[in-house]
Amino acid sequence: MALVPVPEALERLLADAQALPAENVALHEAFDRVLAEPLFALRTQPPFDASAMDGYAVRFADIATLPARLTVIGTAAAGRGFDGSVGNGQAVRIFTGAPVPQSVDTIVIQENVRVLAEGHIEVVEPTRQGRNIRLAGLDFTEGDRLLEAGRRLDAAALSLVASANYPSVRVVGRPLVAIVATGDELLPAGSTLGPGQIISSNAYGVAASARTVGAEVLDLGIAADRKESVAALVRKAVAAGANAIVTLGGASVGDLDLVHEALTGEGMTLDFWKIAMRPGKPFMFGRLGAIRCLGLPGNPVASLVCSELFLKPLLARLGGRDYRHDMRDAILGAAMPANEHRQDYVRAAAVQSDNKLVATPFGVQDSSMLRKLADANALIVREPFAEASEVGAACRLLMLR
Ligand SMILES: Nc1nc2c(c(=O)[nH]1)N[C@H]1C(S)=C(S)[C@@H](COP(=O)(O)OP(=O)(O)OC[C@H]3O[C@@H](n4cnc5c(N)ncnc54)[C@H](O)[C@@H]3O)O[C@H]1N2
Ligand code: MOO
């Protein structure tokens, strides 16, 4: 079977992926969710003309000539306004956020006032009419369109939604991704390892990739290298309502690579298997009803690079979020040999130098090496059949951090 080019693989993976149905969530639970529809203000903010400062509410005409002596006839605080009316030569002590009393038009900050005997002040600095008053609706007015569908609910957006008076909000459903590791040799982190055993590291990183784009993760643990063992965890994922099932390992051609068999046994229709990419060639994609099945290669770097390239965009799409890989132009800090037919993702260190981003590929690129991946802050993307490149040649980077 011909290897599927990376852009085509991504296109096929995303072909019919749409935002999941909307749901209501309480505002306390809504951080990092994505608005399913535009949001309109249910109220006006501020709902009244409000003082922006601590000071005195005055009639501007009274302070036209300075110093101006005024009599303080009451107090207006936030949540407790002054009900009376303010006449000539009078002022009201006022605090930030308090409703501005009737018939005053200016707030003088207290730093510009001398307090005389009890109940009397003298305004000593000039100001402008209307100063320090926030007019009703300065922030927004009832019915205003405040946020668009697709907006991620970050700190500012959440406070705005609350201020607009929504106790809950309609957001795109959150994709659930089930992770199934496969391999008799695997044990969870913290285990005492016997001969031939290693830690199932991939699940942790793949889960983190999924969470980066707002997905919920169900880690189903490790299946043994038996079709029935993999199938049992796949059934668990289906029963849990997963939107995507990610298998780790068992995607290649060895005798123990049972993932394809187990998934098709459960009803998966294969879309493609094996792509023109290094690392990540054995990547598999299929559909089990509406569930997307992604078979990630077992080699740790291949697993994570495939997560970055395919899993993240898919989950982002299902979760209704914009997601684009952070691609940048750079120059090479070391020569690179010609590439063959696979798109190559080469771990590299990228540093800014004299206004240029310089990417230096690591010498060893074995796809089992997590330490080198953690050291890398970028992947140099080498097109299939790219020619040998000298130091200083232009290159494209996929930034990792
Ligand atoms: N004859 C061929 N052999 C291989 C090919 C090939 O085309 N022809 N492809 C190679 C490539 S590329 C990769 S990548 C690996 C991927 O194979 P599998 O997906 O079948 O992975 P496994 O055989 O199960 O494991 C490979 C390697 O990764 C370790 N592993 C597996 N799962 C985990 C995990 N959850 N955490 C950490 N490490 C894991 C496993 O122990 C193996 O060392 O196949 C090549 N072979
Ligand atoms: O995907 Mo494999 O990692 O190319 O070695």
Automatic annotation (TrEMBL):
Domain MoaB/Mog intervals: 178-317
GO cellular component: cytosol
BP-aspect Gene Ontology terms: Mo-molybdopterin cofactor biosynthetic process
Keyword Transferase in annotation: yes
Keyword NAD: no
A family per Pfam: MoeA_N
Cofactor requirements of the protein: Mg(2+)
Catalytic activity entry: adenylyl-molybdopterin + molybdate = Mo-molybdopterin + AMP + H(+)
Enzyme nomenclature, EC number: 2.10.1.1
Involved pathway(s): Cofactor biosynthesis; molybdopterin biosynthesis
UniProt-recorded Gene Ontology molecular function terms: metal ion binding; molybdopterin molybdotransferase activity
Keyword vocabulary terms for this entry: Magnesium, Metal-binding, Molybdenum, Molybdenum cofactor biosynthesis, Transferase
SUPFAM superfamilies in the cross-refs: MoeA C-terminal domain-like (SSF63867), MoeA N-terminal region -like (SSF63882), Molybdenum cofactor biosynthesis proteins (SSF53218)
Matching Gene3D superfamilies: MoaB/Mog-like domain (3.40.980.10), MoeA, C-terminal, domain IV (2.40.340.10), Molybdopterin biosynthesis moea protein, domain 2 (3.90.105.10), Molybdopterin biosynthesis moea protein, domain 3 (2.170.190.11)
Function of the protein: Catalyzes the insertion of molybdate into adenylated molybdopterin with the concomitant release of AMP.
Family, as annotated: Belongs to the MoeA family.
Protein name (Swiss-Prot/TrEMBL): Molybdopterin molybdenumtransferase
Organism per entry: Manganibacter manganicus
